[in-house]
Amino acid sequence: MTYPETLDFLFRSLPVFQQSGSSAYKPGLEHTIAFNDYLGRPDRNFLSIHVAGTNGKGSVSHLLASVLQAAGYRVGLYTSPHLKDFRERIRVNGTPISEREVVEFVARHREKMVGLGLSFFEMTVGMAFDHFTRQEVEVAVVETGLGGRLDATNIIRPAASVITNIGFDHMALLGNTIPKIAAEKAGIIKPGIPAVIGEEHPESAPVFRARAQEAGADIFFAESLFRCVGDGGECLTGEDGTTRRRLTVERIEDGDRLTLELDLLGEYQRRNIVTVMAAIRILNRTSPLSISRRDIAEGCATAARTTGLRGRWEILGREPLTVCDTGHNEHGLRLVAEQLRHQRYDKLYFVLGVVNDKDLHGILPLLPPDAHYLFTQASVERALPADRLAEEAARYGLHGETVPGVRNACDRARRLASPRDMIFIGGSTFTVADL
Predict the structure, then answer these.
(1) Which helix (H) or strand (E) is 142 found in, with range?
(2) pLDDT one-digit tens code per residue, 373-388
(3) Domain 314-434, CATH 3.40.718.10 — does that match?
């Protein structure tokens, strides 16, 4: 098969949560364990760091991978979903798995994958671990797909488990309360493995502590170890035209400070960098890894470029300022809305598309009421029709027009906007992916 034919097989023959939603979700690790055993248990051939959370796990995973690469390690990175190309999910030192390797993996193991009835995600996890082994990866950063306890990635025994935060998302699968969702995420905490929790929430913290005690694992809350000094930092544009966000992080126990420049521009990265700093500190103390302050500074400054991360408060153009962000739930969009309030513009044009399982009653009240909205629909089965989105948005005083297709909506926004205006594109990872 060619690469396009291979992808067509994967997307059409195996359940894909990205396309179909909860119908593709297969709780339980039996199939993943069976496939991993069949592959020769490749997950045991490298050190790993496991990252879960409602929001921020993608940024934290990419930042950790970039820092580890700056420290001289050969680093695997497994994340999901992808924006443009399936191969974004599986990288070694920032380089995506090749089309040839994807084709050959599927050709070798197609019969077994079909026989086991693997989901798309279960197959992809096996492909990632097999690729990391073949590429002689020393350490891999592995991001969960959904939840934690029953996520296909949860077969690994990592050097550390990292949980960024807990918010409301995928409630039909993970539970409709913070403690229930936290219990699912806490499932990645394993016996004797240190756990780092990014944000301490009064409803989720007791769940994490109880799970850590049950597992005999040390638990560390990042906000008790580090804090960002000041607000979200300042954005600086260098002579080469690149923009970075400057943040100063303080170690709480002794006041030691480290100033970093990130090529990830969202103000919310101040939360993620605290989690990253705590994870690195614990890894330096409890694992064979050795990561210096210089490694941290270099890795943070080049995280997006080194790892290929896109869609996190990414500036696409200026005059008008055009930004996209993959924030897609109440927790994530609250942070996006906060940063939008800090922007200066004459008028805001907001290209908005969401999927059909999101809590619109939690999301829509967060969005700026003075924007002109271009309601649209991404090209996935899960996308909420633009007219239904516009109808629901009107209940919260959000008005504009419906435009079929994300690209068409963005083109329309550019025609409407003047150089001093701003265009924002978001509401769903898939909206940004279509862009």
Answers:
(1) strand 139-143
(2) 999 999 988 899 999 9
(3) no
